[in-house]
Write a structure and sequence with these properties.
Length: 427
């Protein structure tokens, strides 16, 4: 009887021990993960919001200021690790607190109200992928994935940039956040991370002057057209402590990647090939954060694409605008954590950054043939402000910024304050 009792006790102890080990493992490496981020911003713009402010700048030079409240992004992450190297990830995004359709006043077309559909559907599914991990150096991701070109398509959480809104340069000339259905192969080896992706090409029908190829991602339909394909790559290096250097690029055709491609002989040889190259860096150490970007893009056949788009039917899902052959964006921001100077233990886990940012971007940097160059699409932008982080997951932001335009136009100063969170809700 004593022998049986000892066996029962031994089995119970083993079960408890194994269960404890599994619970500890689940806590450190949870199979189900939930997280997200969100932003709320209040802005006062000290310039005209009239649709004619670029075509008749002098008449609106002394217009009153106007204010806006906004919820730029609220995102929910869901992930699950099935084991044996198989996992899934999803990201659902709510932009500006509503659906992905909007009504706007078109600046250059008589102030008409236009309904704009950014993507089909009311909620953006930014990511849905299934991944097989063979090792840290070899991972295959299949589904709806991020296109890793530029920093804002990878590092776009609100604690990864100082300004209230994502830096305007990359956010203007590149799709952001750029997500497509495709295949990605990525891995990490030593101080290197690398990734290559295969995705559908952009849609040149939806290119325009103010955002270059920005509108060509996604689809206004219930599916993504893939008459043309594209590839992208990204390489990150972390050899120096606190420093990340990144190089990324993209190439793919865009013309005829639409629902009803033209058979007109005039456009027989038009490909609309999009080339994009981006260099980014980020340094975070010794209470100093410095980030920078340089992005350059080229579009072939831009003049013919402009003529084709501007001749479209009025009800077509295209802005029907001129598009440039080349676009550019570059910028740098730097911040210093003042709390890092204090010996007060209460401030040990808090941060208070004072920052400055400069950037230049032009969605019509070069134009081809008869394509008109809209000078107001180019601007320098200067911003300065603070980021206060009471805990690592919360950031309160305040900034003054000004867009410096060509002397023909009026500059665009503004003041913004906002609050944001980011983090995992499961541990």
């Amino acid at each position: 009887m004593k022998s049986l009792f000892k066996r029962v006790v031994l089995v119970v102890m083993c079960v408890v021990g194994v269960s404890s080990a599994l619970m500890a493992q689940d806590k450190s490496n949870p199979r189900f993960t939930v997280g997200g981020y969100g932003e709320a911003v209040m802005t006062r713009n000290f310039f005209s919001d009239k649709y004619m402010r670029y075509t008749d700048a002098e008449s609106y030079k002394n217009d009153k200021s106007h204010g806006r409240f906004d919820i730029p992004h609220v995102v929910i992450w869901l992930g699950y690790d099935f084991g044996r190297g198989w996992s899934i990830g999803t990201e659902i995004e709510f932009e500006h607190g509503g659906t992905e359709s909007a009504v706007e006043i078109e600046e250059e077309e008589g102030g008409e109200y236009e309904s704009e559909v950014e993507r089909g559907g009311e909620v953006a599914l930014e990511q849905f992928w299934i991944q097989k991990s063979f090792s840290s150096a070899a991972n295959l991701k299949m589904g709806h994935i991020l296109v890793p070109v530029g920093d804002m398509n990878i590092y776009h959480m609100p604690n990864e940039f100082f300004t209230n809104y994502r830096p305007e340069g990359e956010n203007t000339i590149l799709p952001n956040t750029w997500h497509e259905t495709g295949i990605s192969f990525w891995g990490e080896a030593g101080d290197w991370r690398y990734e290559v992706v295969f995705v559908p090409g952009l849609d040149s029908d939806r290119f325009g002057r103010q955002g270059w190829v920005n509108g060509g991602a996604g689809s206004p339909y219930e599916f993504k057209i893939a008459n043309s394909y594209a590839g992208a790559f990204r390489v990150d290096n972390h050899s120096v402590k606190g420093l990340r250097l990144s190089l990324s690029g993209y190439v793919g055709n865009s013309f005829k990647n639409t629902l009803s491609p033209t058979d007109n002989a005039r456009y027989k040889d038009v490909k609309g090939t999009v080339y994009i190259g981006a260099f980014n860096f980020a340094y975070d150490d010794h209470n100093v954060v410095v980030r920078g970007n340089f992005d350059y893009g080229h579009l072939t056949d831009s003049e013919l694409i402009t003529k084709y788009n501007m001749a479209m039917r009025k009800d077509a899902p295209s802005p029907k605008q001129a598009v440039a052959s080349d676009a550019i964006a570059y910028g740098v921001e730097a911040g210093y954590n003042l709390f890092g100077l204090s010996a007060n233990k209460k401030l040990e886990h808090q941060k208070f950054y004072v920052f400055g940012r400069y950037e230049y971007y032009d969605s019509m940097f070069k134009t081809e043939g008869s394509v008109q160059d809209y000078k107001w699409c180019a601007r320098d932008r200067v911003a300065a402000g603070i980021n206060y982080m009471p805990i690592k997951n919360i950031v309160v932001k305040g900034e003054y910024s000004i867009g410096l335009l060509d002397k023909t136009y009026n500059n665009e100063p503004s003041v913004s304050i906002g609050i944001a969170y980011t983090g995992m809700f499961s541990k």
